[in-house]
Amino acid sequence: xxxxxxxxxxxxxxxxxxxxxxxxxxxxxxxxxxxxxxxxxxxxxxxxxxxxxxxxxxxxxxxxxxxxxxxxxxxxxxxxxxxxxxxxxxxxxxxxxxxxxxxxxxxxxxxxxxxxxxxxxxxxxxxxxxxxxxxxxxx
Length: 139
Prior knowledge:
single chain; mainly alpha; about 0% strand
């Protein structure tokens, strides 16, 4: 529901204010419920797992890269066992990802491609950044 709220706020979704705590429109909530009822839980869980593993692997790489390239940045938390933990986290995530079925991999590769197509086709034309006038450049 928060995703829908952010889309509305950015001007990507349909205009109008929603109701309730998250200010989402009823149509969006109903669409989410219908999709949740139609999509089997197993494939959805597998797709979620591979996406989460990929994101976690990227975070592990980012921790190592940023610790080396930007040691001066303030750290909000300490990584236990750094740099060993993030270095071992990447192959662990890769092993779990490669143990998933080819259909999960197909969904993992196709879904972001569909998302990028939708984003560039629809969102770039409808975004408030694209349609609202902005201030003149400083130069």
